[in-house]
């Protein structure tokens, strides 16, 4: 099987850019990725584009071909939609395309424009990633759904809002110096605790913001990298995907995320590693409780220990397992369709030593990304390794 390397990656600034279309955002990220990779756009054989709420947030038209058009690429171009995991799933499809020998060079990424609508309309648009028929119509929003999961976690395992505030503080700290991050401001536990409520027990600093942005990367086969003498020391060695029941009411328990457990197990087996081999992770912290659930689902911590790990500082930049050194969705921002791809771009840079936080993980060789859709109804997990 062909090994897949990350030849280069590009990001736009994640933030409030309502005047920019998804097409323009993806064009910028894609150009940056091509330049970083040193790959000719004529060599790109397929484009994989993640986007969630395009039709609801803007009138751009058929987003699949538009992604390639934005970059002047003359190749098949497809949009992938899996809610907040859209570009994580697109990365998986792109990896498989190269592994199967169907292409030597692909461009994959995603974009989302969210701030051109008022927050209430964006909240409604996001909610279609949940069970629109039975739960959203009864008033459930995403902050509301994760609030239910947080309540269930506290009831089953104990823990407090203050424990989770450590995750927000850590991720804001990690984003300091990340020029692409929406928030580059330090906060303390007290600030997080005193912030206004969004959906109890979730308060402002437990939530990711609403973000416009794009991410892209060029993936190449081992043989293409060798023939073109590319400097591409990072490979995607494992990929996994899982799904769960959409409605919270149909799940056996709200304190576990089986889609992420399945995706993680598949990706680890694919890469031939164990959770113990992982040096750092970028996980889907759309709400602080989601980070705790993610690091448990991936097998880094026992059920009920994710929140304690944050309190004990085990997931900080200097901890045993640094999590979300980019700033995570919490501070870097969450342009839904771009998030999964952005995690892979950030992870490749962290491992290659070209990220602002690379020094914190100078000896790291194995990183994992975890991108969740909806209330973790879908998840894509990737393993990245330094292969030289
Ligand atoms: C699987 C999944 O990924 S599900 C997740 C999908 N995404 C979401 O659900 C988005 C969740 N976030 C939100 O809905 C919104 O950001 C909210 C409700 C938390 C806040 O929205 P609003 O109340 O409209 O905030 P608004 O945009 O007016 O900003 C007010 C202030 O708070 C700040 N702010 C907004 N959101 C956040 C945040 N999440 N964290 C920290 N600060 C924030 C703004 O920068 C602004 O600061 P300023 O006054 O200094 O300029």
UniProtKB/TrEMBL annotation:
Biological processes annotated in GO: isoprenoid biosynthetic process
Quote any Pfam family the record assigns: Thiolase_N
| Enzyme Commission (EC) number | 2.3.1.9
| Alphabetical keyword list | Acyltransferase, Isoprene biosynthesis, Transferase
Q: Which EC class is this protein assigned?
A: transferase
Residue ranges of every copy of the Thiolase N-terminal domain listed in the record: 13-222
Annotated ranges, domain Thiolase C-terminal: 240-385
Gene Ontology terms, MF aspect: acetyl-CoA C-acetyltransferase activity
- Entry-linked PANTHER family: ACETYL-COA C-ACETYLTRANSFERASE, ACETYL-COA C-ACYLTRANSFERASE
Please give the name of this protein.
Acetyl-CoA C-acetyltransferase
């Amino acid at each position: 099987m062909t090994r897949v390397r990350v030849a280069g990656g590009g990001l736009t600034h994640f933030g409030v850019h309502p005047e920019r279309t998804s097409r323009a955002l993806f064009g910028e990220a894609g150009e940056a990725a091509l330049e970083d990779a040193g790959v000719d756009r004529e060599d790109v054989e397929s484009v994989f584009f993640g986007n969630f709420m395009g039709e609801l947030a803007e009138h751009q038209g058929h987003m699949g071909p538009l992604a390639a058009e934005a970059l002047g690429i003359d190749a098949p171009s497809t949009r992938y939609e899996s809610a907040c995991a859209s570009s994580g799933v697109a990365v998986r499809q792109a990896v498989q395309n190269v592994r199967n020998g169907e292409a030597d060079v692909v461009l994959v990424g995603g974009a989302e424009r969210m701030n051109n609508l008022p927050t209430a309309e964006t909240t409604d648009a996001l909610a279609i990633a949940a069970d629109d028929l039975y739960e959203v119509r009864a008033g459930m929003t995403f902050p509301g759904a994760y609030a239910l999961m947080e309540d269930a976690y506290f009831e089953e395992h104990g823990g407090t809002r203050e424990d989770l505030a450590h995750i927000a503080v850590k991720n804001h700290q990690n984003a300091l110096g990340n020029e692409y991050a929406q928030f580059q401001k330090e906060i303390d536990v007290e600030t997080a605790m005193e912030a206004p409520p969004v959906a109890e027990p979730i308060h402002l600093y437990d939530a990711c913001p609403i973000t416009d942005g794009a991410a892209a990367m060029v993936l190449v086969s081992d043989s293409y990298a060798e023939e073109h003498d590319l400097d591409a020391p990072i490979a995607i060695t494992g990929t996994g995907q899982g799904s769960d029941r959409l409605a919270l009411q149909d799940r056996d328990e709200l304190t576990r995320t089986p889609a992420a457990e399945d995706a993680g197990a598949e990706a680890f087996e694919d890469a031939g590693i164990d959770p113990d081999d992982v040096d750092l992770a970028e996980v889907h912290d759309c709400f602080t409780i989601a980070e705790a659930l993610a690091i448990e689902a991936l097998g880094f911590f026992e059920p009920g220990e994710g929140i304690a790990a944050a309190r004990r500082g085990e997931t900080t930049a200097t901890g045993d397992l640094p999590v979300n050194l980019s700033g995570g969705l919490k501070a870097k921002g969450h342009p839904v369709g771009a998030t999964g791809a952005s995690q892979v771009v950030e992870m490749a840079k962290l491992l290659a030593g070209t990220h602002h936080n690379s020094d914190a993980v100078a000896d790291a060789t194995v990183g994992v990304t975890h991108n969740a859709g909806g209330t973790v109804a879908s998840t894509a997990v990737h393993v990245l390794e330094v292969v030289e």
